[in-house]
Design brief:
The complex is a heterodimer of chains A (about 270) and B (about 475). Chain A has about 270 residues and is of the alpha/beta class. Chain A contains six helices and eleven strands. The chains are: A alpha/beta (about 270), B alpha+beta (about 475).
């Protein structure tokens, strides 16, 4: 089994205040002073793949995990984290001239799918959207370009009785769908209360990972040229930050009991369905 | 004959009223511990005896009445306000203990802008207190990470320190006067004056007593003008901690008083994502604040000191400012941490110590070396490092930080297998090098094996306080003083 997990590193937007959202004429918001983190959906995808690979390994079935990102050299730190916790290969695709790919899911999908084909992967797992562009398209476009089946809103995946079958759990309107599927396949990780957190490498694992090589690829290595990186399906015209006004009411009461009663009587009672 | 659990509760209800004596089992469980035994409580395991009752105290006189009853009947009590203690000081290790909860004594009594002091009851939340001060253009200058949750009584009781300590000092430098109740019911008030030479400074009998001598009911602290618009952040990357300590010392000895002066090693820095800005480097950072002239002079002076060291590479102050503004722990972070632990069985703890400039690097190096060589579960560690975050004319503190995956043990065994064992190695190496085993968390219940060694011949004085003020031993048994 060969699994590729595609992930994105984004600025930790929780650490940006209202005044930090300023953009230049090229519509770029300066986030250089904010730490970068794994996109949360991708984090679930990365850990889910690790857990899946362990299921194969316990049955002595080979399972090769590859982490793929499209990023500049800042992505290397995160790739090292992944090699430390068990990813066999770490691949960074870095495009010439570092084009603006924030809202260019099509090009991201093109790069990823070329790599998947080259590396002969059987399963691709991605998060459903990244905090930066919030496009929510990359996974579907990857599936389309590969010509593979695709399942969205995935919440869990396990081995299903054979090394070529997976049981995939996903959210659908009003319920959970559990299906057994064959490979190849694209899985798009969605939101779930049970989303796993990415594990932390031990000191020993971190030390060992330093010696592991990272693979750096350009668009040319993937058989593409710089023309293929142009955003052909959309043009970014402007950015607008929605205003979020909030109101606040202080619940009165001398004791906690009185406060709770006032909260219930005046603010909750009318909203409850019974 | 000792009173039964029911008799204790009945008496307490007679004194404080039915509504103020809580015996709900879940409330009792939550009040049997603090943030020390995180893992077992996350899994709903409570190995510490559950208290007989929690008394929600309403007034100083009520504190006196309750303590008188407990003292006469030799019933152990644990003083509690915000509940953010990290060293087991709030654990109710004696059967049928009573938790004295002062969180409802939460009135800000006075903000005195002439004499630059403010008075609050023990249950005033520090965050709210500071907000009220800032509305009027003042600050207390006290900002521990627990600010959103901690209460004034607990902060004083544990000899707390905040993130701006290098300018404003620890809580002991801020407290002017106090009101406290001793176990025999005696209410004492230490008056608020700028200084006096009228015998020993008796404030220090109360500050840091961790509920082992008396119950703090009211505190008066200094306040300062607040000039956030003048804050300046400065930071540098450098190769090793020894050089960082040298520079920290030079900044302090030259007389500069930044509010923040911190030095992170590369491992600890990576936890805060500093490796994204300074890979494999230590990070030295400062914040200059105060009125504009002082802030400017402080920043310029520090930059001149650090500028002499070619090994230091500047880091954008905005990075540090952004990081620093997200350091505090509110209820949402506590909840997130508990969920993370439950899902990942991954823990993080710290041990904070201090030392003079001539031994601090020895403590740093020896403690880490000892752990690497002697700790039997090194393979489970995911992080081991440290930082200095509070500096003085004479020395600095060290915050050792260690994270680990909990493997092959039950939740209730985790604390012994990992935290207690690692903490012991650090404390031993610190004392061996001449440092202090606790910088600002308090001794609690788990560093008491070294209380005598920490104080040496001066333990006579410490013991004398217990003998004098709590002869029946009802005040937070096992805290500060080892159980005989």
């Amino acid at each position: 089994m060969k699994i590729a997990v595609c992930f994105k590193i984004i600025a930790d937007y929780d650490r940006m205040s209202e005044k930090d959202w300023i953009w230049d004429t090229g519509h770029f918001v300066d986030t250089s002073f904010v730490r970068r983190v794994f996109n949360c959906f991708d984090e679930s995808a990365l850990e889910t793949a690790l857990m899946l690979s362990r299921q194969f390994e316990t049955l002595s079935e080979p399972c090769e995990l590859t982490a793929v990102t499209v990023d500049d050299e800042q992505g290397d730190l995160f790739l090292r984290h992944l090699t430390a916790i068990g990813y066999s290969h770490a691949v960074r695709i870095c495009c010439t001239g570092q084009p603006d790919l924030r809202f260019n899911s099509l090009v991201i999908a093109r790069l990823i799918s070329r790599y998947i084909q080259q590396a002969d992967q059987q399963l691709v797992i991605l998060g459903q959207q990244g905090g930066e562009g919030d496009n929510g398209q990359t996974g579907f476009l990857v599936a389309e370009q590969l010509g593979w089946p695709c399942i969205g809103e995935v919440t869990n995946v396990v081995r299903a009785g054979s090394s070529l079958l997976l049981e995939v759990e996903s959210r659908i309107d009003g319920g959970i769908l559990r299906q057994t599927t064959a490979l190849p396949l694209v899985l798009i990780m969605g939101n779930s209360l049970n989303s796993p957190f990415l594990r932390v490498p031990t000191l020993k694992q971190k030390l060992n990972a330093k010696a592991k090589p990272l693979t750096l690829l350009s668009e040319y290595d993937l058989g593409l040229d710089s023309k293929a990186l142009h955003n052909t399906d959309k043009v970014l015209l402007s950015l607008h930050r929605p205003k979020k006004d909030r109101s606040c009411v202080f619940v009165n009461g001398k004791t906690a009991r009185e406060q709770a009663k006032n909260l219930y009587d005046h603010y909750l009672k009318g909203r409850l369905p019974f | 004959m000792a009173l039964t659990r029911k008799e204790i509760v009945d008496h307490l209800k007679n004194i404080a009223g039915n509504d103020r004596v809580i015996t709900d089992e879940q409330v009792l469980k939550e009040n049997s511990h603090d943030r020390y035994k995180k893992m077992e409580t996350i899994f709903g395991i409570y190995t510490t005896p559950i208290p007989a009752a929690v008394v929600k105290l309403a007034s100083t006189q009520q504190v006196s009445d309750v303590l008188t009853f407990l003292n006469e009947n030799r019933i152990n009590c644990v003083a509690r306000t915000g509940g953010t203690a990290t060293e087991g000081g709030l654990e109710t290790i004696v059967e049928n203990s009573v938790v004295l909860d002062g969180s409802q004594m939460n009135q800000i009594i006075k903000i005195d802008s002439t004499n630059m002091q403010a008075t609050a009851q023990c249950g005033v939340n520090l965050g709210e207190f500071e907000d009220r001060l800032r509305e009027q253009g003042f600050t207390m200058g006290h900002s521990p990470q627990s600010k959103p949750l901690a209460h004034m009584g607990g902060l004083v009781a544990t000899r707390s320190i905040g993130q701006f300590s290098t300018l404003y000092g620890g809580i002991e430098d801020m407290v002017i006067g106090l009101e406290a109740v001793f176990p025999n019911g005696r209410i004492t008030r230490i008056k608020n004056v700028p200084r006096r030479a009228c015998g020993p400074d008796i404030r220090h009998v109360i500050i840091g007593n961790e509920g082992a001598l008396c119950y703090i009911t009211e505190i008066t602290v200094k306040i300062y003008r607040y000039f956030p618009e003048n804050n300046q952040f400065l930071a540098w990357a450098l190769d090793d901690m020894a050089l960082g300590f040298t520079i920290l010392r030079e900044v302090m000895v030259e007389g500069y008083r930044p509010s923040v002066a911190r030095l992170y090693d590369a491992e600890d820095g990576a936890q805060h994502s500093f490796d994204q800005f300074a890979p494999d480097k230590c990070v030295l950072m400062f914040m200059a604040e105060g009125n504009k002239r002082i802030a400017d002079a402080t920043a310029q002076g520090i930059a001149a000191v650090v500028g002499k060291y070619e090994e230091c590479t500047p880091i954008a102050g905005k990075i540090i400012e952004n990081w620093f503004n997200h350091l505090n722990w509110g209820p949402e972070k506590i909840a997130e941490e508990r969920e993370l632990i439950r899902k990942t069985m991954h823990m993080a703890y710290t041990t904070e110590v201090s030392g003079n400039w001539d031994c601090i690097n020895t403590i740093y190096e020896n403690a880490l070396k000892r752990i690497r060589e002697d700790y039997p579960h090194m393979d489970d560690l995911t992080m081991l490092g440290g930082h200095s975050s509070h500096s003085y004319q004479t020395g600095t503190n060290l915050y050792f930080v260690y994270d680990y995956d909990v493997k092959e043990c039950k939740p209730e065994e985790e604390i012994n297998k990992y935290h207690i064992a690692l903490n012991a190695l650090i404390v031993e190496e610190t004392l061996k090098a001449g440092g202090s085993m606790v910088h600002h968390h308090g001794i609690g219940k788990y560093r008491t094996p070294w209380t005598r060694q920490e104080h040496g011949s001066a333990y006579y004085i410490l013991k004398g306080l217990k003998d004098q003020f709590d002869p029946n031993g009802i005040m937070n048994t096992g805290t500060i003083y080892p159980v005989e």
